[in-house]
Amino acid sequence: MYGDPYHPSSHIPFPPNRFKNSLLSGKKEYGIALIAEVKPASPTKSGRKLSPYEAAEIAEQMVSGGASAISVLTEPTFFKGSLGNLKAVKESVDVAVLRKDFILDEIQLSESYHDAALLIASLTGKGLPALIETCRKLGVEPFVEVRSIKEAEVALNNGVDVIGINNRNLMTFKINLETTFTLAPQIREIASDKLILVSESGIHNKEDVMRVADAGVDAILVGSALMGGDVLEKTMELACALYEDDWRDVPSPQHMGGFA
Question: Candidates 3.90.1580.10, 2.10.10.90, 3.20.20.70, 3.90.190.20; correct CATH number of 14-256?
Fold first, then answer.
């Protein structure tokens, strides 16, 4: 499989740390980086499949609105995502692209083009270190999602640079930002200054962004709040949430030269 010249894993890997560097650039520009998610549906919210063209068009609007990176759902059953959408988005934007799926097997990491891949600590269990190592071999940055300090310790002990705190309980699907407020300071105490900490789920408005920023996160991952209305306008609102001036007066990244 890995020797097939037509298989994505055989191509030259993307520049290392591109995902992390995109988030660092976004934080420097806006005070907090936004990972905007192309999210057709979720287990708690109905939706429809998007064509690759639609997914790419949405991602372009998100980048225009200030997204530092793009997350693309590829899980087909619950989220109506696809690898085709991931490929189309990767080809249409100039920021880092994260693949979001239930990744349990190393072979999934070589299925398509992406700069980073979501690894859910609670699902991967003891297989997490091996998946992290496979990511590195393929030139893919591991983005590890945690809900406990123990899971964070495993990620840190394996050299992960970007950790996400999921505010959604995957057993009950209930969302509580208190997860970030409690866990972020605990992770900061044991992590190096180089760690990028991301708050995921339950972020809907400027006030939510300000609250998780105060808890010590560097970035936010938002999907449903962006997909439910005017994508460009909502992306700008959340990307520029820490600006004191009205977000409508802040120039978009395209006018600033974008994020490398």
Answer: 3.20.20.70
